[in-house]
Specification:
The structure is a single chain. This protein has 125 residues and is mostly beta strands. 0% of the residues lie in helices and 50% in strands. The protein contains no helices and 11 strands.
């Protein structure tokens, strides 16, 4: 079991920055693949960044160059640093952990077993 708890969301003006955190706990929390997803109202959940058990990362084209995923393995905490935020980044942001099927692409929700409750990010013009 892995429990995930996101924090750090909020409201920011376009061009601003936020840093999201996801605290992972549980027996399987260490050295698991993790990712960030987001979901805007009436839209599908979108994978935006992942990090594997040895620190290799990947990003969706919509956030590449603006967002950075990282993990503090000593604290089992995942981070997402978001810069140059745009109104279209407004969404509920979720962290996910534990790859159940490595044949499924990294930024696909079905790849992950555990999910947090989400934290809201709102970017205004």
């Amino acid at each position: 079991q892995v429990q995930l708890a996101e924090s750090g969301g909020g409201s920011v003006q376009a061009g601003g920055s936020l840093r999201l955190s996801c605290a992972a706990s549980g027996e399987e929390a260490r050295r698991v693949c993790m990712a960030w997803f987001r979901q805007a109202p009436e839209q599908e959940r979108e994978g935006i960044a992942y990090i594997d058990s040895v620190g290799i990362t990947g990003y969706a084209s919509s956030v590449k160059g603006r967002f950075t995923i990282s993990k503090d393995n000593t604290k089992n905490t995942l981070h997402l640093t978001m810069n140059s935020l745009k109104p279209e980044d407004t969404a509920m942001y979720y962290c996910a952990a534990y790859c159940v099927d490595r044949q499924i692409p990294w930024l696909t929700p079905a790849r992950y077993k555990y999910w947090g409750q989400g934290t809201q990010v709102t970017v205004s013009t």
